[in-house]
Amino acid sequence: LRPGQLVAHKALHQTQGLTGVLSAPLKDAMGVAQGVVICERIPMLADASQPGSGATEPSGGFTECDRVWLQGMLARVGPVLLMRHSLEQPWYLRSWSHLGRLFARLSDPKERVLRGLVLAFFGVSAFLFGWPLAYTVDVPARLVARSETALVSLSNATLMASDIHVGDLVRAGQPMARLVPQVPAAASGVLADQADTDRAAQVLVAPYDGVVIRQGVGAQPGAQLKRGDALWVVAPGLDWRVMLRVDEHDIGRLQPGQRATMRLPGAHERVIHLVLQKPVPLAVDGAQKLQFELEADVTGGSMAGLRPGMQGVVAVEMPAKPMLRRAMDAMRRWWWLTWWGLW
Question: What is this structure's pTM?
Fold first, then answer.
């Protein structure tokens, strides 16, 4: 026992009439003493009712076997008792205790490896969270035609034949559909035969070299069309622009003049270079959040095979900003969206 513990044992023995006091260290899983367990033995007087018993003779103190048993028991259950005691404390006390043990280990001259790891951790964290780094923001986008032409029926007619679908490339003057005017209900017999002979079918042709971007409901062989019904919408194959769809809480991060790159699904090796323009508010039916369309001009890249209607992902180059600042901005946007119920 240490001198202080020995004095405490003697005081307990004198004040409380103990016959023995035994203390043993309480160690954690690493073998570091975290406390002391003190066992007290009170005087056990013999039963005076039994013949030959000494009524005033107390039993002895702790033996060497008792000391060995106590130390062995604490070696097995000590870590469990310390863990339970730690879990019963509030989280801030547990954190403070962990920091205290860490600082104690760092002050130990033998813990050179631990000090090196801690310094390396703080150095890397300071670099990642404090050094400005460039990053990108991914935004969905699509190719939109700058102009388009609708092919409509000039009269009530029947679509006889057509082999045109959305996405097909067409040439200027290429026949796209053959429409036969419908016979009036009054025409019958010989008059109806004469009408079938005299009437001329309407042929719809492509107005220019382009691509079919939309198809009407009645663009099926045998469909009965009314005057003004649109069958297809054709757009020039090379006259298109890139439109980005951006949510309200992200539009503030994108500014006109920022550079970006677009990649299409299935052709990731192809890169289209863009420059962002001014955003325009967009009303979307059923959407809870206001959305914006952001036009982008093409400044370079391979244009072969691209046509209106294609979709892809645009990576916008953002100004360099520390990671800590980016994390704070993200938390601020999340709090704002959660507060207003937009998340």
Answer: 0.49
Count of beta carbons in the 10 Å neighbourhood of residue 150: 14
- For residue 305, is it left (φ>0), alpha (ψ between -120 and 50) or beta? left
By DSSP bridging, strand 240-247 and strand 267-282 are unpaired
Measured CA to CA, the distance from residue 254 to residue 275 in angstroms comes to 11
Helices 323-339, 112-130: axis angle to 10 degrees equals 60
Q: How far apart are CA 246 and CA 294, in angstroms?
A: 7
What one-character-per-residue DSSP string does 249-314 give?
TTGGG--TT-EEEEEETTEEEEEEEEEEEEEEEE--TT-SS-EEEEEEEEEEE--TT--TT-EEEE
Q: Containing H/E element for 316?
A: strand 311-321
Number of other CB atoms surrounding residue 283 within 10 Å: 7
Span between the terminal Cα atoms of the chain, in Å: 64
Whether 5 and 31 have beta carbons less than 8 Å apart is answered as no
- Coil, helix or strand for 24? strand
Main-chain phi, psi angles of 315, to 5 degrees: -100, 110
Which amino acid type is present at position 328?
M
Q: State the DSSP string of 165-206.
A: -TT-EE-TT-EEEEEEEPPPTT--HHHHHHHHHH---EEEE-
Per-residue pLDDT of the chain (343 residues; tens, 9 = 90+): 455 555 665 665 565 555 677 788 888 777 778 888 888 776 654 444 445 544 444 455 678 888 888 888 888 888 888 888 878 888 888 888 888 888 888 888 888 898 899 899 888 888 877 778 778 888 888 888 888 888 888 888 888 777 788 888 888 888 888 888 876 555 444 444 544 534 567 888 888 888 888 888 767 777 788 888 888 888 887 778 888 888 776 777 788 888 898 888 776 677 888 998 888 776 555 555 677 888 888 888 777 777 787 888 888 888 887 877 777 877 876 776 676 554 4
Paired with 136 in beta bridges are 317
